[in-house]
Amino acid sequence: MLLFAPLIVLVLALALDCLFGEPRRFHPVVGFGQLVNAAEKQFNTTPNNSRLSLLAGLFSVFLLTAPFLGLAIWTSATLDGWPLVLIQSIVLWLAMSLRGLAEHGKAVAEPLQAGDLETAREQVSRIVSRKASALDEKGVAAAATESMLENGADAVFASLFWFLVAGIPGVVLHRMVNTLDAMWGYRNPRFLYFGRVAARLDDLMGWVPARLTALTYMLLGHRKLAWWCWRNQAPQWDSPNAGPVMAAGAGALNVRLGGPSPYPSGVKQRPVLGGAHDASSASVDAAIALVRRGVWLWLVAVLVTTVFIFLALHSS
């Protein structure tokens, strides 16, 4: 039971995600986000003072994460057997969002395919921070495709990785740090110093999962192109983790991503990633399928590893 427990948890969590998706009410990540907003309003009072703002950010990260991490550690140490498996499955289900990712992507792809650009713009504005009203059809498709690839790493594979490495505490800490980075990790006067600790922690916790995600995309797509994009294009990206994921994913799909993108603050010049084909509704669907196939690959890898360890233990 103990040896096969991680595999059982993965299967149960993915089954819960497939059946129920993201909870519509009382989602713990949403509740944590409200606490994050409250802490920022309370402690981010000196954004122009780099030292004080950095210390305030560090204190806020500790204040927000320590109680929940402590509870996760206590739960893991206290429970065992099937009760622990059940709790682990629920926590992993709540932390990842495979079905939710696909739903958000299809909400963009379907109106794009039907020629309804306005609806596609409205839906893509829910998942990216770009100025959706300034995006044409290719821009909307590229934004959605990028979101599927990047959030596949953050919301799916990183959660699976941290569960396999550190159980409930790993999943909980990663989800909290990733949420903090999403809300505070901006390079603007308000968050430049206050959000730096959260951003660096997210980079640290995402480093290995991002590269495993990039490897997953590469193995399941156009391998040579994905490898070339990963090695040559990823270093040009401003994020150390999004770069490999986006470049390898774009290459795996042989789709052209990146490039100039309109934001509320102006047009941001970004490196071009991927292959020769323009983004479209088909590339959004292909990105969703790539993430799904990646999850199956991870399940197979965990199954093979578990069986190998089981046979090795019982043959000695």
Please give a structural write-up:
- With 316 residues, the protein is mainly alpha-helical.
- It has one domain (5-315).
- It has eleven helices and four strands, in the order H-H-H-H-H-H-H-H-H-H-E-E-E-E-H.
- It has helices at 5-20, 28-43, 50-78, 81-95, 98-113, 117-124, 137-184, 196-220, 223-232, 242-253, 281-315, and strands at residues 256-258, 261-263, 266-268, 272-274.
- The strands form two sheets. A two-stranded antiparallel ribbon has the order 1-4. The protein has a two-stranded antiparallel ribbon with strand order 2-3.
- Strand 2 and strand 3 form a beta hairpin.
- Helix 5 (98-113) packs antiparallel against helix 6 and helix 6 (117-124) packs parallel to helix 7 (137-184).
- The chain is globular.
- The chain starts with a helix and ends with a helix.
- The model has no long low-confidence stretch (mean pLDDT 95).
- Pathway: Cofactor biosynthesis; adenosylcobalamin biosynthesis.
- Its main location: membrane.
- Converts cobyric acid to cobinamide by the addition of aminopropanol on the F carboxylic group.
- Keywords: Cell membrane, Cobalamin biosynthesis, Membrane, Transmembrane, Transmembrane helix.
- The chain crosses the membrane at residues 52-74, 155-173, 295-313.
The overall average pLDDT, rounded, is 95
Helix-residue proportion: over 70%
Cα-atom Rg, whole angstroms?
20 Å
- Strand coverage percent: under 5%
Q: Please report the distance between the alpha carbons of the first and last residues.
A: 19 Å
Quaternary state, please? single chain
Helix/strand order? HHHHHHHHHHEEEEH
Number of domains: 1
Quickly count the helices.
Answer: 11
Keywords: Cell membrane, Cobalamin biosynthesis, Membrane, Transmembrane, Transmembrane helix
Pfam families: CobD_Cbib (PF03186)
Transmembrane segments: 52-74, 155-173, 295-313
Function: Converts cobyric acid to cobinamide by the addition of aminopropanol on the F carboxylic group.
